[in-house]
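The record is given unchanged here:
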Amino acid sequence: MSEQSFEEMLNEAFKTIRTGEVVTGKVIDVKPDYLTLNIGYKSDGIINKSDFSSDPSVVLTEAVKPGDELEAKVKKLNDGEGLVVLSRKEIQDDRNNEKVKEAFENRAVVLGTVLEALKGGLAVDYEGARVFVPASLVSDTFERDLTKYVGQAIEFIITEFNPAKRRVIGDRKSLVSEKKAAAREALLASIAVGDVVEGIVKNITDFGAFVDLGGADGLLHISEMGWGRPESPKKAYKSGDTLRVMIKDIKDNKIALTRKFPDENPWVLALTKYAVGNVVTGKVARLADFGAFVNLEPGIDALLHVSQISPERIEKPSDVLKVGDEVTAKVTDLNAADKKISLSVKALTAPPKKERAEKKVEEDVVDAYTDSEEEEDK
């Protein structure tokens, strides 16, 4: 038998390893910047801090201790000083990439944590992989401020996976749209015209307010905000207000709302409160060339014609009245069906026709009696 060299015997005593192979070893020593691993090879292995984890905040002396078993991938058989260069991070990256690849191929909904808001979108951590969600795919509406997502866990799907270029793209917008569509369908299936529901004011415009009904928005037009028309939607409500509303109409996906509840209709009691002959008081709501509209209560305006504003003739209402003036007048006409009431201030100063007729008869009688006495004296 030929004699073997010491090096040959040494090589036979230890296992053979190759670059890229995954090995298991026991921690021998831990330093702040690296740790040493016994991998059963003729040389020990070394894992630098940068190769230990994707998390730069990891403290090696706290993460591991001598005696711990670790898996690592062989990066280089000799670092120049006889040690095998190992990486634990590459194993994690490989395993994470497999999870990302599986999620991509199955179009699975995944959950990741937003790391930071970039100029063009969000950087999200999913299983150790850095996923980029473009701003256009963050939501189904324009997002001006993406920083509000930082630190949040968000759901998305992976639409592009290219590990060679380290390019992973996520899409949250499609999930948001799908959830909203499902919620809208569920809401539309559960409501009907005439239902009274609660909603939250989401957005206010000059013509009305959009109310979130929990699955879809409904429009509360300014003309439907109550029996009395408000001066401005923005003065009547603010975003976040909870409102009790009634479904007025549903057409396709559009929902019209109203706060004109039938049991609060002021015209129900109008026949009694504003009967012809009653004296009422209200405030001038608006002026026109032909008269003034007087608000008697929310939802009920009456017309004070220019000819009935004063016993004296006036050219136009604005000569004697202005918006906000309080007016006391007599109801001269009521048409509840057409929701019309006519008023007259003039009628308060002029005696009724019956009184005038009786006064004329009395005057005629007095005149006749006086004439008779004069005849007898002759």
Remarks:
- The chain has eight helices and 20 strands.
- The CA atoms of residues 122 and 172 lie 11 Å apart.
- The two ends are 186 Å apart (CA to CA).
